[in-house]
């Protein structure tokens, strides 16, 4: 039986983790980038893709929170290396979208294979566009805090991790699924402005992630040299 203290702790952990992950992922801002990268898809294909990205995001966050630290340790990868490498990928994606010329939406040929649509659901639309290195590192950090406490606390922490991942996945699904009507309402020029601003923010986020990883890696070296 879960008492009131544990329920309050569950809600507290969920609110903290959900707000943290949502601010890092920013699905409502990235939705314009998603729309720009999938202009050639039909409405039903885009909706199916949005649902799959939401599911993929849930899986990535759950794996990161429960197994992330173990996987990194197994391959000998530090959080600093994850931030630097992943931040570079995010910055490169933002820079590419920032420099891209506006293109008209084109319908795919009738006989076109839909396999590429399913493949792009994970890369690059889920990783690194949606659940990039910043969100993965944050999820790993949140998961690392679950290792302390009794059985009840560990159970509450595990439930909160699942709730966080499910809530973020649902927000990603809804934001991406409704990207087209929102873009249609604000018009072509408004969508272009929102896309470019989001791409610039994505570039800045990638640079900031790399700077954080570099500073974390250099801090012990600087301290040892003193």
**Which structural class do the helices and strands define?**
mainly alpha
Shape by Cα distribution: globular
Global mean pLDDT? 81
What's the total helix number? Answer: 9
What share of the residues lie within helices? over 70%
Number of strands: 0
Q: Number of domains in the coordinates?
A: 1
Strand portion: under 5%
Helix-strand string: HHHHHHHHH
What low-confidence regions span 5 or more consecutive residues with pLDDT below 50? Answer: 105-113
Radius of gyration: 19 Å
Main beta sheet: none
In short:
The protein is mainly alpha-helical and 226 residues long. It contains nine helices and no strands. It has one domain (4-103, 139-225).
Polypeptide structure, described:
The protein has one domain (4-103, 139-225). Helix 3 (43-75) packs across helix 7 and helix 4 (79-99) packs across helix 9 (179-225). The chain is built from nine helices and no strands. It is an all-alpha fold and 226 residues long. The chain crosses the membrane at residues 12-34, 55-75, 81-100, 121-142, 154-179, 191-211. It comes from Roseomonas alba. InterPro entries: Multi_antbiot-R_MarC (IPR002771). This is UPF0056 membrane protein. It is found in: Cell membrane.
């Amino acid at each position: 039986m879960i008492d009131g203290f544990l329920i309050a702790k569950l809600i507290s952990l969920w609110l903290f983790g959900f707000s943290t992950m949502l601010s890092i992922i920013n699905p409502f801002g990235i939705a314009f980038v998603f729309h720009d990268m999938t202009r050639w898809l039909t409405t039903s294909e885009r909706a199916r893709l949005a649902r799959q990205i939401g599911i993929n995001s849930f899986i990535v966050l759950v794996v990161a929170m429960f197994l992330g630290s173990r996987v990194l340790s197994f391959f000998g990868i530090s959080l600093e290396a994850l931030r630097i490498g992943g931040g570079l990928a995010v910055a490169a994606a933002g820079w590419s979208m920032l420099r891209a010329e506006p293109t008209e939406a084109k319908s795919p040929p009738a006989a076109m294979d839909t396999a590429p649509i399913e493949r792009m659901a994970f890369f690059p639309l889920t990783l690194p566009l949606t659940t990039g290195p910043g969100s993965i590192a944050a999820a790993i950090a949140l998961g690392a805090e679950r290792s302390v406490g009794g059985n009840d606390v560990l159970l509450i922490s595990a439930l909160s991790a699942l709730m966080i991942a499910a809530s973020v996945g649902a927000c990603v699904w809804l934001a991406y699924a409704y990207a087209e009507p929102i873009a249609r309402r604000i018009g072509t020029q408004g969508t272009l402005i929102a896309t470019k601003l989001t791409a610039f923010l994505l570039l800045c986020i990638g640079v900031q992630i790399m700077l954080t990883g570099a500073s974390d890696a250099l801090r012990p070296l600087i301290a040892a040299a003193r």
